[in-house]
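Sample entry (132 residues):
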Amino acid sequence: MKISAWYLSAVLGVMALPAWADNPACQYKAAEIQNQIDYARQHGNEHRVRGLERALANVQAHCKDANLLRDKQEEIREQEEDIQERINEIAEKRSEGRQDKVQKLEKKLERDQAELAQLQDELKELQAFTTK
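Predicted structure, serialized as tokens:
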């Protein structure tokens, strides 16, 4: 992966904030938001720039690594619950002989499982930043 100069400067600029010395995952999140701001600015999407700037200010003012980890773990727990509900629904439709519904629900289940895997990867990434 090639790191561009503007991305590197955004990361270094964010990392220079002394209040964030104990919150490297928050530093990373802020750098990601800055990356999105730069992209939106390059493409003339000022409405998105304003929203992302508000998000960046919010992260800079309130972000704590422990909260990021807790929130991601909660998202994972909720996704796991959704998957279990989907599995139960599939079993119900299968017992009713509704194969057309079963196929649709199985596709949704696959998407839910892919989203869970993505959330788990994001959690691992956040954990890697907090253990450095």
